[in-house]
Amino acid sequence: MAAQDDKDKGAARKTKSSVPAVEKALDVLELLSESPDGLTMNEIVDALGRTMGEIYRVVVYLTDRDYLSQDPATGRYALTLQLFELSHRHDPTERLIQSALPILERIAARTSQSCHLGVLNRSNVLVISSVHSPLPAGYAVRTGALFPVDQTSSGHVILAYTSDDAQKRYLARIPSVERAQVRDRLARIREDGYEDTPSMMIQGVRNLCVPVFDARGIVGAITSGFIGQIGLGSSAEETLATLRLSAIELSQSLGFRPDESPFGASLTE
């Protein structure tokens, strides 16, 4: 079954524009990523269903560029740490924070409300960036704060866009009497594209929370703990509209494309 799935994925890729040399190189890298003991040249050729002429030069070139190494005793090729090193030159969390901070600052300036960006950290929400309201008084969450998922809008908004398996694991950990209510809450967030609800932790605070995506899926959520102040700042509805547009802007800067996503309609309506 897995082999058939791989063939189907391969066929789907070939229906799109492709660069043969790059495709072969990626096929080799992906194959060896699943072969911790390495493979000989003949084994690579057989596993990919290609000819020696198609694969030989690709493997040699990847070895010359230090993406592969060959064991002189066995002739087996294996991945080096080159891909690992490349992937860690730009920490994805640092990139997220750097992209988010100016957008959070703009939200605070436009709405006169504080806002913060949270991400899932196991069973908690970690606040990785926050901006205070420019007003003399207000409510804010500090950067680095850690909250249980079940007490936050951020956690539920993120969970609403995770996989069914991730949601099932979360639901299995909470009391059975609460599961139906939480399941309905996640479905409502998914349908609306945001959450607007009273804070479960601070009386008088209204949580306005929207999801943030990258090219792979959900990465976090922007939340404003809205406090109405007479004659100052935006209304809750105006603040929510600003949050939604800002979250789309941040998501697109991270590689998200609403027109290519099943979540695009709910985010932009």
From TrEMBL:
SUPFAM superfamilies, per database record? GAF domain-like (SSF55781), Winged helix' DNA-binding domain (SSF46785)
Q: Which residues form the IclR-ED domain?
A: 82-256
The molecular function terms of the Gene Ontology recorded here are: DNA binding; DNA-binding transcription factor activity
Q: Which UniProt keywords apply?
A: DNA-binding, Transcription, Transcription regulation
Q: Which InterPro entries match?
A: GAF-like_dom_sf, HTH_MetabolicPath_Reg, Tscrpt_reg_IclR_C, Tscrpt_reg_IclR_N, WH-like_DNA-bd_sf, WH_DNA-bd_sf
Keyword Cell membrane among UniProt keywords: no
* Span of domain HTH iclR-type: 19-81
Q: What is this protein called?
A: Transcriptional regulator, IclR family
Q: Which organism is it from?
A: Cognatishimia maritima
GO BP terms: negative regulation of DNA-templated transcription
